Amino acid sequence: MKIGVIAIQGDVEEHVIALEKTLAEREEKGAVVKIKHWGIVGSCDAIVIPGGESTTIGRLMEREGILPELKEAAEARKPILGTCAGMVLLAKEGDEEVAKTGQPLLGLMDVKVKRNAFGRQKESFEVPLKMSVFDELFHAVFIRAPAITQAAENVDVLATLEGHVVAAKQKNIISLSFHPELTEDRRIHHYFLDLL
Ligand code: GLN
Fold first, then answer.
1. Could you give the CA distance from residue 163 to residue 175 in angstroms, rounded to a whole number?
2. CA-based R_g, the chain, Å
3. Is-contact 114 133, C-beta < 8 A?
4. What is the pLDDT of residues 15-45, one digit of tens each?
């Protein structure tokens, strides 16, 4: 099994480590590889788009020819996990801030996202989050987090906070406002690999 992490900018290393630990916990043989350019996505079984700066990640993915490859991977039903900036990039539609920057979106999830949805004063915070797929609360770390403000009927809402959707799933694609790679709780990475 090969899992790719888009490694252009952002918390790449944290996802790589989290995925390696998850594979070890599952006693599955597999490699986690970093995707910096065209030609790697096709050989991966699952792909993570990490948090960071969605404008930078989007533009560089476009320049490196990764965007069409990710669309193909999604069509082939490969699991894709987008966290924070990754949530923005997966969306079909963005808010005015997204429109203003002209950043490319993958359009793989039928949702509208708002960047920095929780306000500037509340840049970073942590909350015990109720997620529909787990019995126990998930300690969620939010950093200048986006959120889903509108979702089509084919999108499963996995968690909400302050009236916004902060975790969602559409077929093989999972989108999160927060950073599961920054805590030791591996349940989300397991849930992601369960889609394989
Ligand atoms: N607000 C950032 C963006 O939209 C995302 C922040 C993050 O990934 N921690 O690019």
1. 17
2. 15
3. no
4. 999 999 999 999 999 999 999 999 999 999 9
Contact 179, 17 (CB under 8 A): no
Using 50 as the pLDDT threshold, list the residues of the chain that sit under it.
Answer: none
* Contact between 45 and 176 (Cβ < 8 Å): no
> Residue 121: its pLDDT value, please?
66
* Alpha carbon distances (Å) from 175 to 109, 121, 142, 161: 9, 24, 13, 14
Determine the Cα–Cα distance for residues 116 and 145; give it in Å rounded to an integer. Answer: 5
* Spatial distance between the Cα atoms of 102 and 162, rounded to a whole number of angstroms: 27
CA 188 and chain centroid, separation: 11
Q: Ligand 1: which of 14, 53, 81 to mutate, judged by most atoms within 8 Å of the beta carbon?
A: 53
List the catalytic residue out of 44, 69, 84, 189.
84
179 is catalytic: yes
Q: Where do the domains of the chain lie, and which CATH numbers do they carry?
A: 2-193 (3.40.50.880)
**AA letter at 182:** L
User: What is the Å distance from ligand 1's center to 29 Cα?
Assistant: 32
* Ligand 1 pocket residues where CB is under 6 Å: 51-54, 84-85, 88, 115-116, 143-144, 146
